[in-house]
Structures are given as C-alpha cells and as structure tokens.
Amino acid sequence: MKEYRILLYYIYTPIEDTVAYRDEHHRFCIDNRLMGRVIVSAEGLNGTVSGLAEDCERYMQWLHADERFRAIQFKVEEHDGHAFHKLHVRIKEEIVNSDLPVDPRRETGIHLEPAEFRSMLQDPDVVLVDMRSNYEHNVGKFRGAITFDMENLRELPQHVAEIEHLKESGKKIVTYCTGGIKCEKASAYLLQQGFKDVYQLHGGIIRYGLEEGGENFDGECYVFDGRVTTSVNTVNPQVISTCYVCGTSTSRMVNCANPECNEHVTICEDCGWKMEGCCSEECRTNPKKRPYDGTGYYPKITADYSAELGFRNAKGSFGTLRPA
Q1: Which residues sit opposite 10 in a β-bridge?
Q2: Which residues are tagged catalytic?
Q3: Are 45 and 64 in contact (CB under 8 A)?
Q4: Other C-beta atoms within 10 Å of 21: how many?
Q5: Hey, which residues does 118 pair with through a beta bridge?
Q6: How many whole angstroms separate alpha carbon 104 and alpha carbon 187?
Q7: Region 309-316: what's the mean pLDDT?
Q8: pLDDT tens digits along 22-40
Q9: Which residue range or ranges hold the Rhodanese domain (predicted)?
Q10: Is the pLDDT of residue 308 over 80?
Q11: Which listed CATH number (3.40.640.10, 3.30.70.100, 3.40.50.300, 3.40.50.1110) goes with 4-95+302-311?
Q12: Residue 228: what are its φ and ψ, rounded to 5°?
C-alpha cells in the first residue's frame, strides 16, 4: 500500500462567513501538511488535496465533524507522493464555474450510485452525456457517450440544442464528469430546459473506477493535479487518443511547455522528450518555454501564497508548515 492519498470531494451547502472559513481551512491544511486546491464559496466547498495517509484521514474526520460537511463523499486514491506542489484555498462565487441559473440544493438529476450506473449501461434506452471540457473527453470518455466541443461548463447552454431530440425520445439521460460536481448543475440545467428522466453518475468517473472497475470507460481520465491523467478502467480498457505530434496511439497527456500556448495535448513519451514537452516546433523554440521534466505538469506560480508560508492575510502574516 502506498504512503500518500489523493482526496477529491465537493458539497453544496451554505457557508456564511467565507473569509473566516477560508482562513480556518487553510490553517488546518498547513498544520497537517496537506497540499492541493480548495474552493470556498457561499454555495459550498470543492477540493482536491494530497498528503500522507494519516494526514488525509485526519482531514476527512475534521470535515465530517462539521455539521455543514457531514455528507461529503470522499474519493480516495493511493499515490507515491504529493500530487500537488502548493496549497491554495481560495474564495470564489461558485465551487465550479458555470454561470448556470440553477441551485442543485433545490433540484438536480437523480443520483446513480456506481453499481446502478454500471447496470444502466446495459439499457438501450440510456444515453450518456459527457459534461466535461473537450480536452478531457478527447483523452478518455465512456463508450458511446455524447460529447460537446466546449472549453468549460459555461458553454453548456450553447450546446443544449445538440441533444434537443432527446426530449421526446423516451430515453434516459445520464450525465457524468470527473468527480460529480459539474453534473449537479448540468443535470439541474437540463431539467430546467425541459428534459425528463435526467440522471447523474454520483461521484463521477473516479468513484466509478474505484468501486466498479471503470468498465466501458475508454482512455484515461483527466485530473486536475500533477498526474494530469489517471487510469480508471481495469475491466476492458482501450486507448482512444493519439499523439498530437506523430499520430501513434497514446493516452499520455501534457500541458504544452510553452506558457503562451499551455494547450492540453496528448503526446507520446518519445515525442514528449523530442519536443521538450511542446506541441509544435514554434512552441519548442519559444524563449519563454518551461523546462520539461517528463510530466508535462506546471503548477501556477501565485504571489503571496506558498505551501510553506500559506496565505498572506489582511495583517500581512503567514501560516507555517509543520515539519515532516
């Protein structure tokens, strides 16, 4: 068993004083050597963090001890080390960017647990709809799923017409995403637009892989940490993407090493080293190109915020990181 864990979670629940809670949450992460990204909003909490198994366990217990977060469902994966280089706990208007006029605490699609979802895959009246961005479903998606050419969930209203024919078809619409959070709002929006029989995969692709082996998910699942992608299908895996440079079959994804490009692209190992992590010769020769270490993951550099020092508060002081 590996020493580290990666936790993925979200919850829609009211948080009144987001500034006070942001600071409290940040201090706990620093004191328990956790790295990652956490979004605090008046509508809830969304996070992906990594740390030693015992520190992650303490973090889950701490969140569950708070009445507001008791219902959080954690997706827990083993890892060799930290999946992040820094800690960011930020306040945002939404815990997932959407701009959709919905409240999933009032209405959302019917939750399907992973076993129920796996069973429904055999139903010919089920239509799977991917609610992730194009670079995510390009590297991996459920077999036969409908995908949209969108950069983020804000663009969903522009693509609803593509599935308009499903309204009167009698089909069951099942939405899915990485961890389930996008589907809470996406399925609510579909219901608002007049779609019926709308479901969502509860816990997303990651939980389905952990609990049901990821059957019928082809390719790799894009994740927002240092792994870039992760395997979820141990039953009948297939590679569906090709190298952006040479066209060979690969599920290996990187961010282009040229920060002025930073495109998410699939590049095989050989081309990765040959192109120094870049998607084109133009990017490879860009003077601002970042050093390539074989991962294709480049954490953002944020002023006044680091895992060692924490978030600079209004008084100008920092938190401290407990020694390992």
Answers
A1: 46
A2: 177
A3: no
A4: 17
A5: none
A6: 9
A7: 44
A8: 999 999 999 999 999 999 9
A9: 122-217
A10: no
A11: 3.30.70.100
A12: 70, -55
Query: 71-93 in b/e burial notation, b at 16+ Cβ within 10 A?
Result: ebebbbbebeebbbbbbbbeeee
How far apart, in Å, are the Cα atoms of 72 and each of 4, 9, 185, 258? 20, 7, 17, 38
Kindly report the backbone phi and psi dihedral angles of residue 205, in degrees, each rounded to the nearest multiple of 5, phi listed first: -60, -40
Beta bridge partners of 311: 305
Question: How does DSSP assign 188-256, residue by residue?
Answer: HHHHHTT--SEEEETTHHHHHHHHHTTTTEEE-EE-SSTTSEE---SSS-----B-TTT--B---EEE-
Beta bridge partners of 174: 128, 199
Q: Enter the pTM of the model.
A: 0.90
- Which amino acid type is present at position 66? D
Are residues 135 and 256 in contact, defined by beta-carbon separation less than 8 angstroms?
no
Q: What is Dmax (Cα atoms) for the chain?
A: 60
Contacts of 229 (CB under 8 A, 6+ apart): 139, 140, 220, 221, 222, 223, 251, 252, 253
Note whether 48 and 74 are within 8 A (CB): no
Please tell me the class of the 110-215 domain: alpha beta
User: Can you give the pLDDT at residue 299?
Assistant: 76
Domain boundaries along the sequence of the chain: 4-95+302-311, 110-215
